[in-house]
């Protein structure tokens, strides 16, 4: 097993389950000290316990990424616990209810933009001073195949994820002078709690398997391994990329 991140300090948001937990687990298994952050305190503490039982050097902090001062406290908690911040993974996100445009409410629009786009801005804004202070090298945001593609009934989610791609690219230009590479992963359909309701029923899984040219839904670990690549020295010349992890979906 490679241990590319020995003693590196990594922060992962949305780490209580799904893709975020897979990212946290992958970093911990390669020797990183990992701060798990999430809004759901019960699931967060269960995830922390799980990774600790697996031998990970981990801690956790409850955060609501829609609240900038909460994000500042989250970063302060990382520095207090591990004395540095080397790598930040901004992954927390929510789906939006699927509905025709006229039925989508202002509240639904605001909620999805607040978590998926403003949340990443809040996290990055709070993280950059600590990354600079520590000589940190990477920010990886979780975008989506909907950063490139559009689906009917999902205007808020699609707009938020297009925004994450734009924020990633523009901030990559602003931050590369500090030695911080900003990149994103763009997952296709991945089997996580977010997708669980849609996977129920006979046709659910078959629909998602058929949607990706590779012929199956993705696994959270397959996204995590790409996040680790982007964070690693192997990606030292990768700046502002939005890396598709979607079994070929963005090509269709
Ligand atoms: N699963 C997929 O098919 C898929 C596809 C493309 C992109 N994504 C993106 O991947 C990321 C992770 O999604 P997932 O599938 O693992 O979903 P998930 O629901 O399993 O995990 C998301 C986590 O984010 C947390 N969260 C939500 N709002 C938060 C807030 N305001 N503050 C802090 N934490 C908050 C949740 O509590 C949850 O633990 C999201 O950004 C999602 O949009 C997922």
Report on this model:
By secondary structure, the chain is α/β, with parallel strands linked by helices. The protein has a single domain (9-242), classed as 3-Layer(aba) Sandwich (Rossmann fold). Helix content is 46%, strand content 15%. The chain has 8 helices and 7 strands; from the N terminus they run βαβαβαβαβαβαααβ. The chain has helices at residues 18-29, 41-53, 68-82, 106-134, 155-175, 196-199, 202-211, 220-231, and strands at 9-13, 33-38, 57-62, 87-90, 138-142, 181-187, 242-245. Strands 3-2-1-4-5-6-7 form a 7-stranded parallel β-sheet, sandwiched between helices. β1 (9-13), α1 and β2 (33-38) form a beta-alpha-beta unit. The longest helix has 29 residues, at 106-134. The radius of gyration is 17 Å and the shape is globular. The model has no long low-confidence stretch (mean pLDDT 97). The structure holds nicotinamide-adenine-dinucleotide. Residues 8-179 form the Ketoreductase domain. This is NAD(P)-dependent dehydrogenase, short-chain alcohol dehydrogenase family. Keywords: NAD, Oxidoreductase. It holds the Pfam family adh_short_C2.
Draw up the topology in text.
Blueprint (H helix, E strand, L loop, with lengths): L8 E5 L4 H12 L3 E6 L2 H13 L3 E6 L5 H15 L4 E4 L15 H29 L3 E5 L12 H21 L5 E7 L8 H4 L2 H10 L8 H12 L10 E4 L7
Parallel strand pairs: 1-2, 1-4, 2-3, 4-5, 5-6, 6-7
Helix pairs in contact: 1-8, 3-4, 4-5
Bound molecules: nicotinamide-adenine-dinucleotide.
Nicotinamide-adenine-dinucleotide binds next to helix 1 and helix 4.
